[in-house]
Amino acid sequence: AQSVTQPDIHITVSEGASLELRCNYSYGATPYLFWYVQSPGQGLQLLLKYFSGDTLVQGIKGFEAEFKRSQSSFNLRKPSVHWSDAAEYFCAPHFGNEKLTFGTGTRLTIIP
Amino acid sequence: DTGVSQDPRHKITKRGQNVTFRCDPISEHNRLYWYRQTLGQGPEFLTYFQNEAQLEKSRLLSDRFSAERPKGSFSTLEIQRTEQGDSAMYLCASSEPPDRGLWAGELFFGEGSRLTVL
What we know:
The complex is a heterodimer of chains A (112) and B (118).
Chain A lengths: L2 E3 L4 E5 L4 E3 L2 E3 L5 E7 L5 E7 L5 E3 L5 E5 L4 E6 L8 E8 L11 E6 L1
Parallel strand pairs in A: 2-11
Antiparallel strand pairs in A: 1-4, 3-9, 5-6, 5-10, 7-8, 8-9, 10-11
Chain B lengths: L4 E3 L2 E4 L5 E6 L6 E7 L6 E7 L2 E5 L7 E4 L6 E5 L8 E8 L12 E2 L3 E5 L1
Parallel strand pairs in B: 2-11
Antiparallel strand pairs in B: 1-3, 3-8, 4-5, 4-9, 5-6, 7-8, 9-10, 9-11
């Protein structure tokens, strides 16, 4: 069965600290992988995507993600968070079925 | 360049009433998707169109829900006889067509239409 898991419902980090948000998937092949961010009251904005090739992908707003085939993971990272990064983050694989499947999301809170 | 636009942004209605949401996709995108998002959850797929053809409907889309895209441009999502459980954010997204039969999967979302059923 195809599934995506974001184990952390809520993460709190201090401004300037590093961040890692976890995403794991279950699928018989390597899916296309996406991370989206949703600020309060806003739609979803694409942060970055992985199709193939280099397993470390760079995105907007200083985010990056690393695909690890052996762990079926696609974790999102940022070296130093800013207060404006407070938002909900969604991992969304494309399992070859013409739509994205979204995880339940991780809510990020930034402490000044 | 305009992105995906949705109307209305907010709708409050009484149980049993009908509501309709409209989505205008990015003009060169031939695919249009509807998702539903409830509080604390990720978006859940409802249906999608390629041009005017509705190619897939989720089991979440009960008989009270109907979506159309009559001319392959804007789309409407109608909910008849609304129930309190229909309260959610309804998200529309569009994407470029498949390239040589392969869909890349990148969706461009509107800001959503929030429905509250009293």
